[in-house]
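Hey team,

Sharing the Cell wall-associated polypeptide run so nobody has to redo it. Sequence (252 residues) first:
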Amino acid sequence: MQYTYDANHRLKEVTDPAGRKTTYTYDQHGNLEQTIRPDGSKETRTYDAAGQLLTLSDRAADGSSISEYTFTYDANGNVSTEDNKVPDITVQGPEQEGAGLSPSTLLAGKAEMTYGKDNRLDTYNGMKVEYDADGNQITGPLGESRESFKYDARNRLIQAGQTAYAYNSENNRISVTKGNSVTKYVVNPHAMLSQILMETDGNGKGQAWYVYGLGLIGREDSEGTYQTYHYDRRGRIKSKFVCKFPQLDCAT
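Structure output:
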């Protein structure tokens, strides 16, 4: 990995071992202004005089919109409205099967939720939600079904439905097991938030590798398929593009 910085010591460019480059530019106040990814997609941000994010535009290499957010704020600086002009883009999120960062489409549609006196979720689309004495959710929604959740003595999630999780002594998740499929993780614990660097199978053979800059840039699997990740204002995965390099043949 190669990292370069500007005169103000801000991350300017990330080049991975395959030569794929991600570049960052900043405005005169130091706010992130533009991100250009290896697949040619481009994220652009604008701010008001107080440094509050006004627009977040993400476009694919062909110019098509991935997301087009606009924001307004109240007198206290809280976001009062958030509008995405591309509401039908597929939302991506962590899936249960295998790797925790492999994107999968989240279920869309209306959800009806009720809350108890303690302000905890009580029902979800009519399904009862239950908690243990430590406040951990032990039964509740998982996709469209009601599933059970189990925790260890440190209140770490160790099972969700048919998927099991394991952790190291530093509380980093190091494996996911579903049925006979085991995915293990090599983790960087020294970042502000721990980062998955590599996925392996149950025998320790590398299956996927991750690239980071200002957040997760991409993931490459053992077959050479490269995924770039796109986010909303909160850093949640909004969509992904799957590319075959060096041809840059990408699809959502």
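The longest strand covers residues 65-73.

Ping me if you want the raw files.
A.
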